[in-house]
């Protein structure tokens, strides 16, 4: 007999995703290696973090244990970030509700029990080949004990995850927080009825990730990677037009009340990249969507598509300065000067502004474990201080992001970061809009 | 400490290929799990075929055993060794140990693993191995006992097992179904037109044949290969032998060439906007003009190109001349100016170093594929997320599950790209349908 798992590929994929794209190595299979606890422990101790799966006729129950498998009679102590779960088939997808342990599983010669406080969540009895369930994961409720005969028990080593409780806590809670953020942003309304749609302008050097950020935001709302704002790198800017992108909520969904505006990159040289005078016109709302910008010749009021009296809603309401985090500390003097000139104009026009640092390596650690605030990571502190001084932006409005630049699939941790950043931009905008003089 | 192997991806891959396309699951690691044969047997018995790997300072030595680890077993044994080296080129030397029924294939006794007729002895307690001199010469080892630092044992499983086959079958069915029912951007056009652009010989026409083959159900060769394409061609794809046309069309064009050869850059604008008719004969030096008899004066949205796929041969992509690189970049700029969304297809991925048929099921996990994708990103500037790999039908008569899957997956990405393009069209070009 081959030693292979009973999991279907789809079930395995769902489990891997639950743990942040871990990989699983089958170590123990009861029908091959023997049903006793001793048989199991022989193969599963000192293997690092593990997943134990128990198959009944209609269900799969499991336990994730962070760190090494405990031994028989091992004394109880605090167990962080381990949890039980079950695989639930719903329509065409597999859902995996979880519930945390906070005690080391108790192992005797024929019994393996998992606890939350003094409650047994579930218990495996190898002598009787029974599993006793006391907590119904799908209903999130305790129940009278239910006994099932189990068909198989498998234990896998979990690889490719960070072996610390913060990481595990984060990846297991991220999906819930993602849904929360999506709901909040779908329900967003600008704080003043004078402006039905917020426009956020991406400004930054060539190759800093402006178009990629726009694609990343669109991707989160679409549910798959999108490539509408043309991204890539070259010596000069890929983007040559001024673009206004609306964000649709799902395929064929309605547009959300904020738009992301893309512009050509800034360049050191005076007559290259986005022209300073054009920036002023963009900020005031005089430049229409798709206008072809010319680095040497700014738009003039006599141009046929120039918008001479833009309304409030046509203006830019927030500017996001987009900078590659790895080049922030090495910006050429002329580029810094350009930024300061732009910032002066932004302040003069009373426009909200944030900084967005891109190409962040440890993007999965930027937010705190509860996803509510940014970690002040020591890794990028000097970059943050540098930008704060250069542009006079408060630290809480210096945002960090990892765009969808190299993945073909969405990652909920990255989704949450992108959505959090977007929400901060909208909050910064609301702060400024409330300060609008009545005109 | 994490329980992970010391083998690099390349080393593991060479070993896997050497033993017939296996995948390895690490079961035992001496420095973590203990240095007795009892510790080893606890974890490795009854696991099916295994491979035991020994790491000395300069060599990796091991044994593949067909039967499960037990106290004694009689399965066949293959001994091997290779040098630990920084470069990716190394050679595995193999020796098939005695399979005579009178001699045990593998035996464990008091912390020593014996193979064959004492051909190889591994003492996991003292960390020494000894071997008969003849075999040491055979597999390229220096004579004498060898001290080692680590011993790892892996279970060997088929890389493409039934479970994975079932997965790919199911996914391919789902993808095929999505293609058949695909409705471009709420019916803005009936068919998406995908233009293939790339150097001559990169596999554009071959890709078209491969797509046709997938939906035909057998390998077909309608688009002539082996000759430079000189015409603009639009190929409709039928669903099955006499089925309905699918909602996408593949457009083939002259290949990009050096200097004045190949597709004229000025023609690209006309192709993208839909002015060039099917079967138009390209001229490398002279683009089509509005006065040409077949020029399409007022193309509709359905006549335009909705997605471009740059087709590049994965095996030669790092050896493109500076001139070709510049031409591809110029071509891309033309595409960008017209607002057309585009992707990259890397073809002939099956010919990359160490890639086997079983890898095609998930090629993005293979280092050689990653290197090529990164090379395209670095040299040509395309985003990593827009680069896909395919394997065309070139020599086969019958369809392959993994090739079908790759082709369908890349098509899906192109249809999504086309949706992105259509959704972003200015209102005056969509007659207000989208508003």
Automatic annotation (TrEMBL), chain A:
Its main location: cytoplasm. PROSITE patterns: TLDC (PS51886). Gene3D superfamilies: P-loop containing nucleotide triphosphate hydrolases (3.40.50.300). GO terms for cellular component: cytoplasm. Keywords: Cytoplasm. GO terms for biological process: immune response; response to virus. Transmembrane segments: none annotated. The keyword Cytoplasm applies. Pfam families: TLD. It is found in: Cytoplasm. Residues 1-159 form the TLDc domain. InterPro entries: P-loop_NTPase, TLDc_dom. The keyword Cytoplasm applies. Belongs to the IFI44 family. This is Interferon-induced protein 44-like. The lineage of its organism: Eukaryota, Metazoa, Chordata, Craniata, Vertebrata.
From TrEMBL, chain B:
Gene3D superfamilies: P-loop containing nucleotide triphosphate hydrolases. It comes from Trichechus manatus latirostris (Florida manatee). One of its GO terms (biological process) is immune response. This is Interferon-induced protein 44. Transmembrane segments: none annotated. It comes from the Eukaryota. Belongs to the IFI44 family. Signal peptide: none annotated. One of its GO terms (molecular function) is GTP binding. SUPFAM superfamilies: P-loop containing nucleoside triphosphate hydrolases. Residues 1-157 form the TLDc domain.
